[in-house]
Amino acid sequence: MKAVELLVTNPSTLFASKSPTHLTKSSRFFTIRSSLPLSSHDASTGLAERPWNTSDARLVLEDGSVWRAKSFGASGTQLGEVVFNTSLTGYQEILTDPSYAGQFVLMTNPHIGNTGVNFDDEESRECFLAGLVIRSLSRSTSNWRCAQMLGDYLAERNIMGIYDVDTRAITRRLRQDGSLIGVLSTEETKTDEELLEMSRSWDIVGVDLISGVSCKAPYEWVDKTKSDWEFNSNGKDGEPFHVIAYDFGIKHNILRRLASYGCKVTVIPSTWPASETLKMKPDGVLFSNGPGDPSAVPYAVETVKEILGKVPVFGICMGHQLLGQALGGKTFKMKFGHHGGNHPVRNLQTGRVEISAQNHNYAVDPASLPDGVKVTHVNLNDGSCAGLAYPALNIMSLQYHPEASPGPHDSDCVFEEFVKLMKSVKQNA
Ligand SMILES: NC(=O)CC[C@H](N)C(=O)O
User: Fold this and answer.
1) Which domains are assigned to the chain?
2) pTM here?
3) Which PANTHER family does this one have (predicted)?
4) Ligand 1 in contact with 399 (CB < 6 A)?
5) 52 Cα: distance to centroid of ligand 1 (angstroms)
């Protein structure tokens, strides 16, 4: 106890500066920085102000529960669906995964912020999520790649965060009752009742969230995984296949992995007409991950339908769900979904179990699919469908994230399978 108080009451020995200069990318020295205003120091007693005295935010859930917390990042009032993520690392990639648009991400790992944020780990151009909910915000960072403190980063992007809230209790509630809509607010003039009413007046089901995150014009993607980080040297020296990637909220690492496997990649907006895509004569089309309810975007299902059977296709997460619907199947909302980097999946084609990165609230009902469509992967936690193939139409898809970022790399080989599929179709043409 004594040691802890000593640590808090002598902040100047711990923290380099309140507004530190940024480290350069190449620096391998780590600097410890302060992200929060340091506890005010009472010289007469030698004790720091108790940190739990300053709750200035509330998360009000639609079930009527009110969670008092401290705010960091942006302030204001924000509405969203609360989901919990069980990843131990990779909060920056999670913050920039566009599939979280409209959602508050609650991290079950209690200690967040200790590696700061850096220039390389962005998974998209913006943070699209509604906000971040964490137990403990690290007061310091110690990582050679750190370029900015998490709180400053969120404030710059106008994203609200809260800490010092019982994330374990909220997670247990979500597991029991399912995902809940909530309102996060730092505005003291708003009553709990007003915030509760706001949370009950909105639903994420049926909302097209893709249109808010997709790119607005086509572009070429060339970046590969950096050689320092490359972990798989298989199958990367072949013929360059042209992949057109529909951006429903695409993560950069999907594009990097395709480029690393030798593909020439063109990214197109979610509303790009199928006829235009086919005119570009791609060797394959990728339907990306993306936020929200797959049933809320019938235009995207129509696009997928028009492309099926014309070129090999690969669907990831939202892309997989859209493929499921385009094949005549149904999607449904799960109780609290899968969000994290520790989901075991069995690849039914090889018998191999892969530990996978997942982020979805919806799933394809395999019983609704027509004959000929095979379930290729199953989530071992709940038996839900984690992958599909329809060999007759050169379709493959995964409900989860083979590109990881963050997460294990067990499923990376699926990009090689897609390249092989494009190759065999081209050879037999
Ligand atoms: N990662 C994703 O593509 C998410 C898909 C969809 N928004 C879901 O929640 O199921």
Assistant:
1) 14-40+48-200 (3.50.30.20), 210-427 (3.40.50.880)
2) 0.88
3) CARBAMOYL-PHOSPHATE SYNTHASE ARGININE-SPECIFIC SMALL CHAIN, CARBAMOYLTRANSFERASE FAMILY MEMBER
4) no
5) 35
